[in-house]
């Protein structure tokens, strides 16, 4: 029978942080090793971001931090004190859906819906990157403004997987809003 060894480590180290989530200041005490995904889901009851692979490969956990896309399963909460976090729950303005949310509905850009929150947050961030003139790996003229064609959308959304295969409709929804 194996015996537990005293590793010299005490209880987990916790820290108080104040997160700005969906426009609301949210003080929370977290373990210094805790990911943003776990904080959102377990402490703040925001379950839109999904734990798909927990390795940053599927994109189901994508949220926006200061308007930029991040994989919340790879981001430590302690690094986000006083940063602006937007989850899928914060995209709509009251009862008015974000244009991408409306476009996803209109184009039937989801099937099971598990990846949809991450897809939506990633698409919002991606459209902001295009608007700011950031090139991607497939941008033909890196000195000019990126043209939002299907190849550009597919490349920019390649970090978000859809196991149901709704990619054609996801691309159509993003193209509709980006036009």
Distance between the termini: 65 Å
Output the CATH homologous superfamily of the largest domain: [2Fe-2S]-binding domain
* Beta-strand residue fraction: 15-25%
Topology order in helix (H) and strand (E) letters: EEHEEEHHHH
The number of helical elements comes to 5
The CATH topology of the largest domain comes to DNA polymerase, domain 1
Task: Decide which structural class fits the backbone.
Answer: alpha+beta
Number of E strands: 5
Helix content: 25-40%
User: Could you give a short account of the major beta sheet?
Assistant: 5 strands, mixed
Outline the low-pLDDT stretches.
Answer: none
User: Strands of the biggest beta sheet: in what spatial order?
Assistant: 2-1-5-3-4
Protein name: Oxidoreductase
Organism: Planotetraspora thailandica
Keywords: 2Fe-2S, Iron, Iron-sulfur, Metal-binding, Oxidoreductase
Pathway: Alkaloid degradation; nicotine degradation
Can you put this structure into words, describing what you see?
The protein is α+β, with helices and mostly antiparallel strands. The chain folds into two domains: about 15-90, Ubiquitin-like (UB roll) (Roll); about 100-179, DNA polymerase, domain 1, CATH 1.10.150.120. Helices cover about 30% and strands about 15% of the residues. The protein is built from five helices and five strands, in the order ββαβββαααα. It has helices at about 35-45, 100-105, 115-130, 150-155, 165-179; strands spanning about 15-20, 25-30, 60-65, 70, 85. A five-stranded mixed beta sheet has the order 2-1-5-3-4, sandwiched between helices. Helix 2 packs across helix 5 (about 165-179). The longest helix is centred in the C-terminal third of the chain and has 16 residues, at about 115-130. The relative contact order is 0.15. The mean pLDDT is about 95. It holds the Pfam family Fer2. InterPro entries: 2Fe-2S-bd (IPR002888), 2Fe-2S-bd_dom_sf (IPR036884), 2Fe-2S_ferredoxin-like_sf (IPR036010), 2Fe-2S_ferredoxin-type (IPR001041), 2Fe2S_fd_BS (IPR006058), Aldehyde_Oxdr_Iron-Sulfur (IPR052914), Beta-grasp_dom_sf (IPR012675). This is Oxidoreductase. Keywords: 2Fe-2S, Iron, Iron-sulfur, Metal-binding, Oxidoreductase.
């Amino acid at each position: 029978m194996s015996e537990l060894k005293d590793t010299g480590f005490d209880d987990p180290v916790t820290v108080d942080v104040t997160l700005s989530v969906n426009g609301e200041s949210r003080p929370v005490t977290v373990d210094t090793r805790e990911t943003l995904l776990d904080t959102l889901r377990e402490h703040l009851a925001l379950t839109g971001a999904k734990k798909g692979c927990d390795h940053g490969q599927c994109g189901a956990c994508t949220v926006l931090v200061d308007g930029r896309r991040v994989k919340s399963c790879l981001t430590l909460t302690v690094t986000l004190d006083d940063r602006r976090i937007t989850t899928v729950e914060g995209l709509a303005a009251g009862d008015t859906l974000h244009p991408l949310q409306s476009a996803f509905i209109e184009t039937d850009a989801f099937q099971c819906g598990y990846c949809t929150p991450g897809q939506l947050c990633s698409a919002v961030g991606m459209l902001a990157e295009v608007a700011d003139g950031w090139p991607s790996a497939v941008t033909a003229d890196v000195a000019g403004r990126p043209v939002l064609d299907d190849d550009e959308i597919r490349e920019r959304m390649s970090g978000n997987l859809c196991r149901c295969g709704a990619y054609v409709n996801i691309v159509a929804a993003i193209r509709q809003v980006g036009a």
